[in-house]
Amino acid sequence: MPAYQPPFQITPSILTLVADISEQLGRWSAVLGHADAALLPELRRGNRLRTIQASLAIEHNSLSLEQVTAVLAGKRVLGLPREIQEVRNAFAAYEQLPNWQPYNVNHVLAAQGQLMLGLVDDAGQWRHAGVGIYRDKQLMHMAPPPSQVARLMGDLLAWLKTMPVHTLVASCVFHYEFEFIHPFSDGNGRMGRLWQTLILSQWKPELAYLPVETVIRHQQAEYYAALSAADKASDATGFVEYMLKALLSAMQEVVEAPSQHQVGTKSELTVEQSYVLAIFKGEMTLMALMKEVNRSDRSKFRSQVLNPLMDAGLVEPTIPDKPTSSKQKYRLKRDMH
Question: Which among 273, 258, 257, 266 is positioned nearest to 307, based on CA atoms?
Answer without folding.
Answer: 273
